[in-house]
Amino acid sequence: MVYASSSCCLVLHFILIFLFPNPVISDKQTQEWINYICHQMEEFGFCNQTFHENLKNPSADYVGLTQTTIEQATVNATSTCAFILQLLKNATDEGLENALNVCENGYSIVVQSFQDASKYFNQKDYRSMIQSERITPRAQGSSSTSFSIPSFPVNPLVDRNRQMRIITAMALVTGSQPDV
Question: Which family would the database say this protein is a member of (predicted)?
């Protein structure tokens, strides 16, 4: 019985390791770059956490950090787009539907822009990458402003918009560094 219990705990331990990987601990230079970038963001903690949870290499340079931000921006925008579509399925109020349609259109532009940025990044065409990213703040911002009408007490996308705004800024800052 003790053997079964200990082997069960061992299996659970391995499952937890694979399901919840530890964030990468960056080296000193990479952490200095992360600090430089994140101190320019509206929320240092979210920025820092995003890098550490998604770094592929503890010795990432600006190119690696740029790759991380593009990937996370794409994941976040795609997830938010899916969330908006789910909200649209359940929307019964015409005003809410209209606002969500504006958000869905904006986030579709953001998704496409970061997919384009990823393509340009992989081609090492950093100028085109930045041009693709530069249109995303306005497109994403339409999701915030569509709920600024007094009839909407709560924007269901407040936190997602905040995260997207920060990740977009991270992508623009990392992609604009001289090393990229």
Answer: Belongs to the PMEI family.
Helix 94-122, helix 126-134: angle, nearest 10:
170
Residue 142 pLDDT more than 80?
yes
Domains, the chain, with CATH or none: 25-175 (1.20.140.40)
Cβ-Cβ contacts under 8 Å for 126 (sequence gap 6 or more) = 120, 175, 180
State the first-to-last Cα distance of the chain, in angstroms, to the nearest integer.
58
**Residue range 141-155: average pLDDT?**
67
Under 8 Å between Cβ of 128 and 51: no
Q: Which amino acid is at 151?
A: S
Say what percent of the chain tops pLDDT 90. 63
CB 172 within 8 A of CB 56: no
pLDDT at residue number 4: 47
Provide the token pair at 100: 């969500």
